[in-house]
Amino acid sequence: MTTTSNGYVTVIWQARARTGREADLKAFITAAVTPSRNDAGNIDYEAYEVEGRPDTFVIYERWENREALDSHLGAPRMQELVPQMLELIEGSIEDGITLLRPFRPA
């Protein structure tokens, strides 16, 4: 993952629920938001549903630096959540990760 010149790391994660597991995935994500917001170095952590696609969810995360993100990802609770999440989503967690690199027009 990339750190920007100001040190921030921005991640978008998108996941599609397995058929019939949409409500379960939404509840799972809802329960994970507040603890993630409270992790050291978190700037922003927002969960979204994709309009018109009730099986698709997006999390927008912004971290002070790469170390804060790595600490979040390596937290014991995150390691416990991964197997549960894999039961709810199509594909892998990594498939849904998009890294953003900001730029400003001149």
From TrEMBL:
Pfam families, A to Z: ABM
- What protein am I looking at? Quinol monooxygenase YgiN
Q: What is the lineage of its organism?
A: Bacteria, Bacillati, Actinomycetota, Actinomycetes, Micromonosporales
| Annotated ABM domain residues | 9-97
Q: Which UniProt keywords apply?
A: Monooxygenase, Oxidoreductase
GO MF terms here are: monooxygenase activity
Note the superkingdom of the native organism.
Bacteria
